[in-house]
Amino acid sequence: MDKSSQIKIDINTNENNVPKTMHWSAEDGGVEGAEAKAMILSLWDKKQQNAMRIDLWTEEMTVDEMKQFFHQTLLTMADSFERATGEKNITEDLRDYCLHFADKMDIMPPLS
């Protein structure tokens, strides 16, 4: 039996259509009205054979938060790509780039 699931994103914008607040809900994940400051949504368009994207961030998102957000997003993309394709060599290259990115953005985590 097939199941349907829904993820809901509510965005409140200012007079210039810049997001002021974003909240999301995912009933299957137990999330209801969680606040977010940024999102990157990427969907594969089967017919056009390309990625359709929505990138949004709130007016209060800081540059330092954006650097962290992109770094973490790049790392999770490497993880997802490896799980989806089994391509270990290129994902290691992607992770190496993430270290380079973190170094250049001065967001390297402290060494323990």
From TrEMBL:
Pfam families for the chain: GldC-like
Recorded superkingdom: Bacteria
Stated name of the protein: Gliding motility protein GldC
Organism for this UniProt entry: Putridiphycobacter roseus
